[in-house]
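TICKET: design request
STATUS: open
ATTACHED STRUCTURE:
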């Protein structure tokens, strides 16, 4: 005949009272302690799982979670879900929520990067149109350091470099076209002052 443990019976009675009052914080705390005191007691473990599930559901239905969902603050939601998973690691529902939230964070990051690259492309094209080739080259290199395989910015870089080369060649041609006639005139006036190579 099995003997009754008064501490165990009192603990289960208290857990059931907390359950009937829907006091899941206190129930969870007591159930966690009870599993330490009665590690082989299936009834205690059942009450712990009940407390975990209801505590987590209560938190998921909280106003804070709803506000974060409305604000689409997925990073904060993921943090809450991770904390709740430490309380109820067997919750398949929490694991699904966390997975979906992480996917939304990833998608949000991808959308931010897409917008960033689109804006960067527009700015670099504006720089090229204004003749700010060195700035366009520098900006293209900064993007390519992060995304070396980005063909759009590779093309913009080549275009800006080609236009800068053309600009420099035109400037050199202008300088030569101004200097050479002056040198010829100086040579004609003072040929003895020039050294022939």
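STATUS: resolved
RESOLUTION: sequence designed for all positions
ATTACHED SEQUENCE:
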């Amino acid at each position: 005949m099995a003997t009754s443990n008064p501490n165990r019976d009192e603990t289960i009675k208290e857990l059931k009272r907390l359950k009937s009052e829907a006091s899941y914080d206190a129930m969870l705390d007591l159930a966690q302690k009870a599993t330490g005191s009665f590690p082989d007691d299936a009834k205690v473990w059942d009450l712990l799982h009940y407390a975990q599930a209801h505590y987590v559901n209560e938190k998921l239905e909280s106003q804070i979670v709803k506000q974060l969902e409305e604000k689409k603050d997925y990073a904060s939601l993921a943090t809450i879900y991770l904390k709740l998973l430490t309380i109820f690691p067997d919750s398949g529902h929490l694991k699904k929520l966390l997975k979906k939230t992480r996917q939304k964070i990833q998608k949000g990051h991808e959308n931010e990067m897409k917008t960033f690259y689109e804006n960067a492309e527009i700015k670099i094209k504006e720089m090229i149109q204004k003749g700010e080739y060195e700035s366009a080259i520098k900006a293209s290199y900064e993007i390519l350091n992060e995304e070396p395989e980005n063909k759009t910015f590779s093309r913009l870089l080549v275009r800006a470099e080609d236009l800068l080369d053309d600009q420099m060649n035109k400037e050199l041609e202008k300088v030569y076209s101004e200097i050479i006639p002056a040198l010829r005139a100086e040579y004609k006036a003072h040929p003895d002052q020039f050294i022939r190579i």
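CLOSING REMARK: Residues 131-187 form one domain. The longest helix spans residues 151-189.
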